[in-house]
Amino acid sequence: MRAFFNGIGFFESHVHTNFSDGTNYRLVIQTAIKRGTNVLAITDHNTTRGYVHARSYTKKYCKKTGKDLLIIPAQETETDKGDVLIYGLEETIPKKTDLETTIDLAHEQGAVVVLAHPHNLLLTYLMLKMIRNYKFDGVETFSFLYPNIINRRIHSLMIQFPHLFKLIGEDAHFWWEVGWYHNILELQDLDIDSVIKALKQNKIKYRRKNMPWPYNIKFIVNAYHVGPYSNAGFGNLLKVVMKLDRRKKINEMK
Ligand SMILES: [Zn+2]
């Protein structure tokens, strides 16, 4: 039986799984539900495979536990001008497609396109120019990858674009980073169309919980996948630790 839905979506908008550079999708889903998420976008890099697997696992898991979680078809796509998040798409959009075509292909499918973490475009004027020149639907203003002082700056800069909806996203690459940031949506129903509609209506509230120690070292830890040090020793060491931890968790679940 489906759990009672009260019309409020706690939407987590930026999460990776093992189908790109994240951690086990089952742990991601269980953690999200535990921390109050009822709408989750699996935004793996250049693929919707994570979404497909997450959807079927969630169906079984929710049936067993009596919980409710809607998985939104999504992907984070690499374009010639950086990463964009796409929500509500039906078919995967290939990576390295130019930005304009990516946005058009997404819109043809009824999906919405969000500029992902514009924080790393160091030159603000280039970022603003890009937002003016392309038909984005939204922009991610808060990202766990960056300290809050930068997040707040980006959020206030974006106020000059009232037509764009703003999302806060964790860019979670580890299952324990899931469930701290929620975009709060008023939904007619717990389904994909209602979520896309609510985003387009641009009436979003936010709930940010501060990550307690040791989770809050995220933006330092994440240096491992940012920039030229992506395969440096620290990152690889961390991956080994994560793998061992994951194995332990999966064994516990059995
Ligand atoms: Zn990401």
How would you explain this protein's 3D organization?
With 254 residues, the protein is of the alpha/beta class. The protein has helices at residues 25-34, 49-65, 99-108, 124-133, 148-157, 192-201, 218-221, 233-253, and strands at 8-15, 39-42, 70-72, 74-79, 82-87, 112-115, 138-143, 165-169, 181-186, 205-208. Strands 3-2-1-9-10 form a five-stranded mixed β-sheet. Helix 4 links the parallel strand 6 (112-115) and strand 7 (138-143). Helix 1 crosses helix 2. The radius of gyration is 17 Å and the shape is globular.
Keywords:
36% helix; 254 residues; binds zinc ion; single chain; five-stranded mixed β-sheet; alpha/beta; TIM Barrel
